[in-house]
Amino acid sequence: MTAAIVADDISRTYELDGVTVPALRGVSLSVAAGDYLAIVGTSGSGKSTLMHLLGGLDRPTAGTLLIGGRDVSTLSPPEMARLRNEVIGFVFQSFHLLPRTTARDNVALPLVYRGTGRRERRERAAELLARVGLAHRIDHRPNQMSGGEQQRVAIARALVTGPSVLLADEPTGNLDSATGESVLTLLESLVADGVAIVLVTHDRDVAARAHRRIEMRDGLIV
Amino acid sequence: MRVAEAWRVALDALRANRLRSLLTMLGVVIGVAAVVALVAIGTGTKRQIESQVEGLGSNLLIVVPGRLEAGSAPSVSTMSLDDVDAVSRVVGDRSRVAVTIASGETARAGSRTAFVSMQGVLETTPTVFVRRLDRGAYLTRSDVSTARRVAVLGAGVAGQLFGDRDPIGRQITIGGVRFRVIGTFEPLGQSLGVDRDSEVHIPVTAAQRLLGTDRIDGLAIRAPDRDRIDTLGADIVGTLTERHPDTDFSAVTQQQILGVLGDILGVLTGVLAAIAGISLLVGGVGVSNIMLVSVRERTREIGLRKAVGARPRDIGVQFLLEAVLLTTLGGVLGMALGITAALLVDRLSPVPAAVTWWSLALAFGVSAAVGIIFGVLPAQRAGRLDPVVALRTE
């Protein structure tokens, strides 16, 4: 089985006022089904840049990056969007749920961009909310839910398209330790289902739970 | 993303900011309302004038000296009553030919005075034009041939000089000459800006004597049928030119007058609509402005939507639809307001107003177009946002 994501010596530099700033300097790694990988590092180490690249939100300035078997350097913005929709699921530190929108509609959002019909979207969203233990919150809005519940909605949203890789950027960063623990447990339960989890964190205790750890410093894996 | 879905998202976004959406719409509402109301007033005025011109009588041919061209100076008439006889022979029916010699005079009855439009006419006037008598009788052929000093008063003049008393048989004085009132007209009101109720009709011969002239100002002919009206006009002009080789004559029909007036009013209506259109444009700029603010405010939302698979086009369409929804809703409200304003003006003021379908269709189309034109820039900006930057925005 081919890896969902293969990065071969990828770099990412930014141009700031004519000065070239390297954020990532030749990183290689691969993520396959069932992987549970933690990327750790202090802020400015390049771990966020790496996550954006792995998630298809950005493109490397050098090196080869394959997502879902496709070389991202050959893809147009709409093709990248499709790739994110089909291969990747994102979980953010600050949840990024749409306000004034019910849990069900938040979860169904990625399916909107896939062109799935309304009825099927609603059914799928309900299934996923049940899977993360929020069947009773289906018509609640984010401001009616606790932080832990909001993050579970976000995880359900990330899973609704059946992605190969779930990229979680500090998923427990805004949660207390007990809630954080339950969110991590939920994420870990997905590994058994064959979803690859990439956890970006600066919390070493969280990182210690992963099967594989990558430590970043100054744009390099150490 | 499906279009129906995009509409729902746009509507939700507008609902989330009700007050702001309403205020943004207001510019378009006012612009569309102004276009609809002003075009209605222009159209109403045009229709009123058309009905006034047609109300003068049917198949009229008005003959005046001079050329009817823009820039040509008005000519002094050289026509006399002999010319009228010649024209009557061309027409073949004397009762279809009317003449006027008009002069502004002061009429007196006892201690009362009235400023009147004295018209020296033939007995044929009521059959050529539409004039109905209220009381008494009109001038007769013998009144004209003997220059009898009799007068028929407009409703306004009769009221001013005699109040509630019956003027028939009483005396009035015009230019120091006494006339006996033999009839009064039904009220007619204004037509083409002239107060028809201030007219006093006296025999043309008596008017010529009073004014010390043997000329007449102009002729009007009621053509027997509409099809031959232009030929008849040419024949009459030919006859008159033969008799007065040094003078130009013109024959105009009601259709020609309506054409000229219609052109003028059309231009006026167009100018009014264009001025109103400017406010629509300003409204569009407001929409553009608010959409740009909205894009900035919802940068995080845009980033998230992109992260879960929205293409640049999906985001662009979403914001474009939002702008179009704003302006078309504003357009519909504006139409309702414009129609209401037009109806009120028509009901409560002397200015007539008639709402036309084309102006509604135009206003709606323009407001939708304004949404598209002014929504494109914010939509493009939203579509092109870098998802990494957008997600990071707090």
List the helices and strands and how they pair.
The complex is a heterodimer of chains A (222) and B (394).
Chain A: E1 5-16, E2 19-31, E3 36-40, H1 47-54, E4 62-67, E5 70-71, H2 77-87, E6 88-91, H3 103-112, H4 118-131, H5 147-159, E7 165-169, H6 177-191, E8 196-201, H7 204-208, E9 212-217, E10 220-221
Parallel strand pairs in A: 3-8, 3-9, 6-7, 7-8
Antiparallel strand pairs in A: 1-2, 1-4, 4-5, 9-10
Chain B: H1 3-16, H2 18-55, E1 60-65, H3 81-91, E2 97-109, E3 112-121, H4 125-128, E4 133-136, H5 141-145, E5 150-153, H6 155-162, E6 171-174, E7 177-185, E8 190-191, E9 194-195, E10 199-203, H7 204-211, E11 218-222, H8 229-243, E12 249-253, H9 254-297, H10 299-307, H11 312-348, H12 357-384, H13 387-392
Parallel strand pairs in B: 3-10, 5-7
Antiparallel strand pairs in B: 1-11, 1-12, 2-3, 2-6, 2-11, 4-7, 5-10, 6-7, 8-9
Helix pairs in contact in B: 1-11, 2-9, 2-11, 2-12, 3-8, 9-11, 9-12, 11-12
How would you describe the overall organization of this protein?
The complex is a heterodimer of chains A (222) and B (394). Chain A is an alpha/beta fold and 222 residues long. Helix content of chain A is 34%, strand content 27%. In chain A, a hairpin with a 2-residue loop joins strand 9 (212-217) and strand 10 (220-221). Chain B has helices spanning 3-16, 18-55, 81-91, 125-128, 141-145, 155-162, 204-211, 229-243, 254-297, 299-307, 312-348, 357-384, 387-392, and strands at residues 60-65, 97-109, 112-121, 133-136, 150-153, 171-174, 177-185, 190-191, 194-195, 199-203, 218-222, 249-253. In chain B, the strands form 2 sheets. Chain B has a 6-stranded mixed barrel with strand order 2-3-10-5-7-6. A two-stranded antiparallel sheet of chain B has the order 8-9. Chain B is built from 13 helices and 12 strands. Chain B has 2 domains: 3-52 and 259-392, no CATH class; 76-247, no CATH class. The two termini of chain B are 26 Å apart. The interface between A and B is medium-sized, with 26 and 23 residues.
